[in-house]
Amino acid sequence: MSNPTQPPQEPLGAEVAxxxxxxxxxxxAIAVKAGELDAQAAAYRLLGFTEIHREEVLGGDQVxxxxxxxxxxxxxxxxxxxxxxxxxxxxxIDRNGGRGGFAHVAFRVTDIQKTFDRMKADGFNIIDKAPxxxxxxxxxxxxxxxxxxxxxxxxxxEMVQEG
Length: 163
Fold this sequence. Notes:
By secondary structure, the protein is α+β, with helices and mostly antiparallel strands. The chain folds into 2 domains: 24-103, 2,3-Dihydroxybiphenyl 1,2-Dioxygenase, domain 1 (Roll), CATH 3.10.180.10; 109-163, Signal recognition particle alu RNA binding heterodimer, srp9/1 (2-Layer Sandwich). 20% of the residues lie in helices and 33% in strands. The protein has an 8-stranded mixed beta sheet with strand order 2-3-4-1-5-8-7-6. A hairpin with a 6-residue loop joins β3 and β4. It is globular, with a radius of gyration of 18 Å.
């Protein structure tokens, strides 16, 4: 309900359209032990999640992933199974006493390069030297859990732009 004594306010879209902002949570990543990916994916499907993507991601990641959509929205759960003992996901599992669990949260952004440049200029501890190719045609970069000396997030963050 508008107040007739005040002029109508303009929507914020035009003001923030050029900012490298976060759109939504793209996915929550969960590490699963080698050999357990299919069983874990089946358990999420029993919860009503829909599997939308499977891929082996090589390079420095060395994981097999399954993406599951939560309801009809944009949010996903990403299950990550290590392919090698050197995989960062296997190292996470090792640090967790051999258990899987929370790996990272990924935020979807409008412009990955602007977000990268802005976060770097703002002093964030960015792991990647530049945005890089991610799974399902995305472009990504990771932010260290000790992201800022004065206010660390405490968990790994991935920034994602849709392909």
